[in-house]
Amino acid sequence: MLKINHVFFSHTSHDSFVLKNLCLSVNKGDYISIVGENGSGKSTLLRLLLGFIQPSKGTIDLKAKNIRYVAQKINFSQLGFPITVHEVLTSYQKLLKIKDSSTVDRVLKQTDMIQFKHSLMDTLSGGQAQRIALARALIGSPDLLVLDEPSTGVDLKNQETIYAILKNLNRTKQLTILSVEHNLTAAIQNSTKIFHLVNETGIFALRNNMHKKFYKTT
Amino acid sequence: MLQYDFMQNALFVSICISLLCPCIGIFMVLRRCSMIGDTMAHASLAGITLGLLFNKNPIVGAFLFTSACGGLIEILRKYFSRHLDLILTIILSLSIGTAITLISSGHLHTNAEAFLFGSILTVNHSDMFCIFLLTVISILTLYKLYNSLIYMAYDEELARIAGVKVDFINYAFAILIAAAVSISIKIVGVMVLTSMIALPVATALQLKKGFRQTLFYAIFFSFINMQIGLWGSYYLKVAPGGFTALNSVFFLLIVLLYKKINRNPKAPKLSEP
Fold it and tell me: Are strands A144-148 and A67-70 parallel, antiparallel or unpaired?
């Protein structure tokens, strides 16, 4: 589904490499959490995968067609954007040219947010807004779901709900998930593999000694 | 009053302005770039003077020049990505410099200053045709780009991932701003043109509704503001631009006051011991 082959990246030709000789293979049904300390290149790796920046060397072979992205911040509520949950989802559905009228209700039920269908985004809590971002990402049956720290600024109850939804989608619908995580416990409990970014490169880590290994390197 | 041709023409143009300006304005306000409208309005003065210099319709001149300025803003964004204020200063220098040079040269065949404050007397049939055409094309384009523009206002990166041609739409939107500016200059005037783009939207935003309802309210407020401006300028014998801007601000203040009075009275007062 996704293969990163010996990728190097630096912001300019004069800068040192942020990522060096990075290799990562993602197969269908994987739930991979990318962990690492601040500045280890997690966000850079995400931007490379999404095609916002190009690698300095190496190749990214992306076979997934329907990629969805859940950003860390919720812009609608931050901007005071005058828009309802229903409008957020129907606009995105129309953007993807999906005609199935039951789509919005389906993704709202999947994220347990159907009761907020006609609420203004502005009135939702951070956790609820994040679940709407997740609902939006589920429109059109994605092949690959890319998340950037999905539990940032989210209360514990909503964190549990979000990870339960992700785990359920991965285990029952074989949805491939790639998530940058700062929440190591959530990464260990929910993902099938953990990719540890350290010393400008990355390695798959064993979950059993992840806590020990992570804290030793950070 | 509607027996006068000039009032019929002005009424027709005011309806076009009430429809198009808030439709463009809502995306500009939400993308936090309503000052681009002000810059484009000033840029239109250079287009007007160029139109007058070559004996062409000044509205067409304004549209072409402001479209070029809109394109230039998008090009400069790549060089000054974090300095929109600087880009607007560059465009203002170019356009106001052009306008002042041409006006002061004495080569213009008409008085360009009339466009600064707007006038209900100056709309002719050729203007009406241009304004009608620009309004229809712009509204159809906006309808087509509606969902893309919503997501670009929300998050450009997310829109890109969804396959939206963000760069192309940015250029198209710059031309739409140019159209909104061009249809408004005759009646509203260059000086306060931004008020028709931003103020009805600002008033509608206070009602805290969804996107579509906010847009409808913005069009409604814009229509009321334009009609008060038009009829007020007729009876008071003042420039419609200034009077429209004044009553737009007044409307916003009324809505803010209404909100303050109707704030939940049961809400606890923190200052009480």
Answer: parallel
Interface of A with B in 86-145 (CB under 8 A): 86-88, 91-92, 94-96, 120, 122
Q: In what order do the strands lie in the sheet with A2-9?
A: A19-26, A2-9, A57-62
DSSP B57-99: -HHHHHHHHHHHHHHHHHHHHHHSTT-HHHHHHHHHHHHHHHH
Max intra-chain CA distance, chain A: 53
- Contacts B157 to A, Cβ<8 Å: 50, 52, 69, 71
Q: Are B36 and B92 in contact (CB under 8 A)?
A: no
Contact across the interface for A95 and B208, Cβ inside 8 Å? no
DSSP conformational letter for A84: B
Q: SS3 for B4? A: coil
Query: Which among A47, A93, A95 is the top mutation candidate for probing chain B, defined by the most B β-carbons within 10 Å of its own β-carbon?
Result: A95
Contact, B152 vs A99, CB < 8 A?
no
Place of tokens 């401006």: B229
Where does A138-209 have alpha helices with state H? 156-173, 184-190
In this structure, are strands A2-9 and A19-26 parallel, antiparallel, or unpaired? antiparallel
Residue of B211, B214, B217, B221 to mutate, testing the A interface (most A Cβ within 10 Å of its Cβ): B211
Q: Does B148 touch chain A (CB under 8 A)?
A: yes
Helix (H) or strand (E) holding A26: strand A19-26
Residues A96/B162, Cβ–Cβ less than 8 Å: yes
Largest Cα span, chain B: 73
State yes or no: pLDDT of B16 exceeds 60: yes
* pTM: predicted TM-score of the whole model, two decimal places: 0.84
Give A6-39 pLDDT, tens digit per residue: 999 988 877 788 888 888 889 999 999 998 888 8
Q: What number of other Cβ atoms are within 10 A of residue B68's Cβ?
A: 18
Of B151, B153, B212, the CB nearest to A92: B151
Beta-bridge mates of residue A148:
A180
Residue A195: both structure tokens together? 């990719």
Min Cα–Cα distance to chain A from B226, Å: 24
Q: Specify the length of chain B in residues.
A: 273
Interface of A with B in 2-61 (CB under 8 A): 50, 52
**A199 interfaces chain B, CB cutoff of 8 Å:** no
Is A62 a residue whose pLDDT tops 70?
yes
- Please give the pLDDT value at position A77: 45
- Integer CA distances (angstroms), B246 to A61, A127, A153, in order: 59, 42, 43
**Which residues, 6 or more positions from A207, have their beta carbon under 8 angstroms from its beta carbon?**
A188, A194
**Which candidate, A181, A177, A148, places its Cα nearest to that of A74?**
A148
